[in-house]
Amino acid sequence: MSEARILTEQDCRDIFERVKAFARGGGDTRVFISSWWQGELRWARNRVSLSSDRRDVEISVTRTLERGGRRGVTTNQLDDHSLEAAVRAAERMSKLDHSPGRGFGFEPPQQKYPMPDSAPVWSPATVGASTLERGEVARSMIAPAETAGLYSAGYLEVRAASRMVLNTEVTDPQPGDGEYTQSSYVRWTQAQCSTTVRDASGTGSGWAGLSSYDWDRVHDEAGALAERAVQKCKASRNPVALEPGRYTVILEPQAVADLMAFFVASLRRNSAESGAGPWKLTIDDALTTDPSKPFWHTKLGLKVVDERITISHDPMDPWQSIIMPRFDEPGPVTWIERGVLKNLYYPLLSTGLELGRRHSLRGAVGYRISSGDTSMEEMIRSTRRGLLVTRFSNLKLLDEDSLLTTGLTRDGLWLIENGEITKAVKNFRFTESPLFVLNNVEQIGEAVPVFRPTKEEDGELTPAIVPPIKARDFSFTSLIDAV
Amino acid sequence: MMISRRDLVKLGLKAGVGATLLSGVPRWAQAKALGIAPEMPLPITDPWIKELALRAVEAARSAGAMYADVRLTHTRERGFSPHPTSVWDSERLSVGVRALVDGYWGFVASPIWQPDEMARVGREAVNQAKVMAMGPRRQIDLASVPVVHDEHWTMPVEIDPFEVSPFEVTDFLMGLRHFVKGFSGFKPGDNRPLAHFQVQEKAFASSEGAYYTQRVYRSLGELEIGYEGGAREVGGALDTLTPAGLGWELFTGQAIREQIRQLMEELKEDASLPLKPVEVGRYEVVCDAQTVATLADRTLGTATQLDRALGFEANASGTSYLNSPLEMLGRFEVGSPLLTLTANRSERGGAATVAWDDEGVRPDEFTLVREGTLEDFQTTRESAAWLVDSSTKANREIRSHGCAAAPSAINAPMLHTPNLRVEPGREAMDFDGAVASLEEGIAIRAMGVDMDFQGLNGLGQSKRVYEIKNGKRVAMIEGAGFLFRAPELWKGLVSLGGEDNVGRYGMGSSKGEPAQTTVHSVSAPPAVFEEFTVIDPKRKA
């Protein structure tokens, strides 16, 4: 039963064969096939508000006729009639445009590119989490809030998804003909759970959440998540207004992960080389750089953040398991090593081959920021005056080059005075750059897995392991009296 | 006559490969297998689709649902961009069944339109609800609704975009591109103009005996234009192609080239104006119609969603600053007496316009804010009943306003913003007129707005902000931001343009877990606000 919720590899191959048989007029055929299933449960005001079970498939047929364009047609129907209609439509579309190349199909010899090793991305526990079990977990998470006279809302989700891309082979491929489009069958699972607890008067709000490919890991933490959200709600009631300004902040791991969103997305070589983003070399940087450095147009090799910061990915760590890109550098990748920019994402075809590499280098889809040895308690104890931040919300990038970001604190913000948490504080809008924060680090704690699920039903895994960070002079720009 | 899967296999039709997932054999495929002329996807009014729908409802009812409804959606989409030429097509069938058991909802969705699958989906929706009903008691009352019997509605569009040849659309877009490039210094944005069309057919049946089918269109376009002919590079976007409940006439039914010329004139003026840095302070501000519509949507459009106000979105998009609906109705002042905000799902061309919502309710026109006072909330059948005390006191009928919606049947229906309308003032005032009326102040075109998770505090930003002196735009202000609290913003409303100055803009509403986005229209005239706080959003503390 659980197997039939998504397509198997054989299903995908059969679909491809059927599509190929419908093709008329030569040219190349490519089929992208994905499927997903989700078991979901929402609750609010201490009662389950919806329990759902959903699934869908997607078949994208692309036909490239000789000297024609490359056009895709998508359907979620697998019967012959629908597939044939999709192929015909794709062929009509292909005729709309001219393409000088032959289009699809260029593939390096397959045997040299086995799927890179990675820790599991498929968890039988996630697929096996029954409606009953999900309901029990939800109720167990609601109970502590209800007992305390508070309102719990939350969301639990388990999902499975699969993807495969197949295309016809092209003889005599030449570089630049097309893209490496074919990809092996992959299937993965994702589990997530998050909860928001509010008080009846709406002055306090606490949040906690966790995601993983493995439901067991989320399930094991459910009680702790519920407890944390309740405590945060209670402790955040009746907040006082503080003046905006610069504060020392202790960012909980979730807040660090939220703030890092634009940072990790920016770790791309192409944009740096074309003169955009934070990693392009500016004149100032160039003047202080050894001119013999090979990467003269990027900051590769330069110290960019505090030397205690290392940002890396190990595909063999089950808390970091991602769907490894097929042609990617096997093994761990480090983007920032002890504060020095070491690597930036690049694709194989354009940049990789120019660099003489045989692999692409992945971006920080999944990542880990190195741990420090300071406990949260110690961070608080050693703070004369500062703010403790649960998480950030509504983030918006203001400046691509400096990564200056604005956003809001949400679900728990406290004032620390002379080593103790003294007051709940009203939320702030901040205007700050993660680059600035990572250059003003005071202390770092132990890295832990955070809540970082993909929202799209067929989205890939994006796990992160992030430490709490204490940093100086974080800029809060205006008061937000929303809870 | 229904034919079985085995018959099909005998006929040599490879119907599918998986056991559960792939058994979908639409009727047109069956027909083809039997040697009958193959039908293209069935029209939604075909009796066979009603059979499917009723089968799902019946399965849910016999499994123990106290209430159940089913939606079958057939969604076609077609997208275009002219440079490089690109067309993509998508077609999806979905079925979703919602079942209510002892106060708990279950929802199950699938891509397979097939009798056995209807039964499975119906039964499983009940199972989902029953498992949850093992928990503490939960009471749900559904506001009663006149039952719709076998009715069909097709959104009136002048030209069905799927009847237009893709070549013609591509030519049209390419033509606009060349038109823009024909003017010295002007260029269209990369890959622009783009166009996107959707037609969705829906069949709805409920255990209360309701059955309707409807066909709804959505069209949208995007065109940004840059100008490099002046002292510096400037740019703007055409604001007349936002999502609408229209067909191909969205492009051919209005004077787009005239609008482009006007935008070009504006951009020329922008490029000729000196640049000024932000001077933080409070100003009298003229907002163009699009900015007023965006402000109304992001502040009041989200805050008056009753599910948000009562905490049902607390873990997702957030709650609302209108957080005590029962106490606030009829009393809370959300803005100046000049402000009246109405809602509907019936206006011609509206992006949220339907004949019936996703619960079979025919939406009514209603007033959310009357002369500055909160008068009502957006509701569905379940949420309407949450206002029972207030409605009884006000001697009002308890009924849903018909705000249940979802992108397709693969998503559970939930409360989404209907079409909104900021009621215009009595006297005409266009953007230029409003600017002319100001001795000193600021004017804003096409502002984007980010709100907090209660729709209370906002940050607005636009690239087209002007300093006004003696009724004239005298400079452009670089990097200006606007900070506001929703009630103060609307209390600072000084004047509104008239009926002839109203513009309509399609906007998205995203909420829920899993998240889903629907579109609606917001109509508003230009307006003048006082005491608007201007900041430099990039300035740190």
Name the quaternary structure.
heterodimer
Shape of chain B: globular
- The computed structural class of chain B is alpha+beta
Q: Over all CA atoms, what is the radius of gyration of chain B?
A: 26 Å
- Averaging pLDDT over every residue of chain A, what do you get? 90
Percent strand of chain A equals 25-35%
- Tally of individual domains of chain A: 2
Question: What layout of secondary structure does this protein have?
Answer:
The complex is a heterodimer of chains A (483) and B (541).
Chain A: H1 9-22, E1 28-44, E2 47-64, E3 70-75, H2 80-94, H3 124-128, H4 131-147, E4 151-167, E5 183-198, E6 205-212, H5 215-235, E7 245-251, H6 253-259, H7 261-265, H8 269-273, H9 283-287, E8 311-313, E9 333-337, E10 340-341, H10 348-354, E11 367-369, H11 376-381, E12 385-399, E13 404-417, E14 420-424, E15 428-432, H12 434-438, E16 441-444, E17 448-449, E18 464-466, E19 469-479
Parallel strand pairs in A: 7-12, 11-18
Antiparallel strand pairs in A: 1-2, 1-4, 2-3, 4-5, 5-6, 7-19, 8-9, 8-11, 9-10, 12-13, 13-14, 13-15, 15-19, 16-19, 17-18
Chain B: H1 5-10, H2 27-33, H3 47-62, E1 67-82, E2 85-101, E3 104-110, H4 115-133, E4 151-154, H5 166-181, E5 186-188, E6 194-206, E7 211-222, E8 224-227, E9 234-237, H6 249-252, H7 256-272, E10 275-276, E11 281-287, H8 289-303, H9 306-309, H10 325-328, E12 341-344, E13 366-370, E14 373-374, H11 381-384, H12 388-393, E15 404-405, E16 414-415, E17 419-422, H13 431-436, E18 440-445, E19 448-451, E20 457-461, E21 464-469, E22 472-477, E23 481-485, H14 486-491, E24 493-496, E25 503-511, E26 516-524, E27 527-535
Parallel strand pairs in B: 4-7, 10-22, 11-18, 17-26
Antiparallel strand pairs in B: 1-2, 1-6, 2-3, 5-8, 6-7, 8-9, 11-27, 12-13, 12-17, 13-14, 15-16, 18-21, 19-20, 20-23, 21-22, 23-27, 24-27, 25-26
